Amino acid sequence: MNSLTRASCQALDERDCLSSFRDEFVLDDTVIYLDGNSLGALPRTVPGRLREVVLREWGQGLIRSWNAAGWMEAPTRIGGKIARLIGADRDEVIATDSTSVNLFKLMVAALRLRPGRPVILSETGNFPTDLYLAEGVAGLFGDRQLRLVPADAIGFSIDADVALVTLTHVDFRSGRLHDMERITAEAHAAGALILWDLSHSAGAMPIELAGAAVDLAVGCGYKYLNGGPGAPAFMFVARRLQSALRQPITGWMGHAAPFEFAPDYTPAAGIARTLSGTPPVLSMAALETALDMWERVDLAAVRRKAARLGDLFIRLVEARCSGFRLASPRQASERGSQVSFHHPQGYAIMQALIRRGVIGDFRAPDLLRFGFAPLYIRYVDVWDAVEHLAAVMAGGEWDRPELKARARVT
Ligand SMILES: *Cc1c(COP(=O)(O)O)cnc(C)c1O
Prior knowledge:
alpha/beta, seven-stranded mixed beta sheet, four-stranded antiparallel beta sheet, globular, binds pyridoxal-5'-phosphate
């Protein structure tokens, strides 16, 4: 530990096989960006591509671009590019809408596939939108209810009443990683379906949806995938379930033949039946351009580096700063790509760090959350971030009224 220096971090960066990716992002060297788990950084290729879509495809191509520029196929084409990242086949993934809307569609579809089973099972600490939607969906059916149990009680809470188990793979607060394969098998053994939210794991680690026999999944386009603020999200439906799947937002884009303008609804074959309305072409283009970079990324290397960055951060914070209590699993194999610490003054400390250009975020009631996106975070960034944190604490820099006033987005 004592032998760890900034120079040894630099040496780690020199040996890092992912180091060249950093130059592919627009990043300000005065900022250490530890929030790529909330909003991924901007790939350099995106602005130029957006300019081209706006001026050439929209400006000149006009409505012809729906065919000529492949706008119409964007949801399935982009879904196909996400497939490799999550261990699925290309025709099992689609990019559309938001994670929240996609959760709604797949939760309703899952309950319809399991009539007579009254329960949606999730964990108390799941991401709020996931819980709110499960509650909303249960209420919509009238005879279903949401049952919440602590994370470690999921396994033995799956009984014959459970229609759907819905969980987030990596916990947004602690970064704790669920055992996808085991819980999926437990759900199936009880006759339930499983829906995984991959928002904090897609692009952070290899995921094997097919290998784990997962039924349904959703995930976010603007976190590790770097698709831009409010980027389209994605949905996965295992091929074996696609022909029976009935999602509730039966818009024309999910119809078998949208341009026949038939009065009644016939779902499209395959994953396309999960679509509802017209794709947001500009946002789709940003996400697709970001995904083209992911084609060259080795996810196993991403996972290894994320573990090392997180381990390094934990060691340095614990050695140099007092008053922080680790909220994430200490074992890297048990956490995603983020590390969180409890501190009673967490909000003000994070504001003081942000003033210094070290950007993480805060989650109530007392969590400082730091995300390590391995494509653009270096080992020296971890070193420097802890240097700043130590200085903030030593100088009492956080102890100012203006740093304690909560902003709308924390
Ligand atoms: C980020 C995130 C979402 C985001 O949902 P939106 O519909 O994009 O607002 C949903 N679920 C989880 C687990 C997330 O981490």
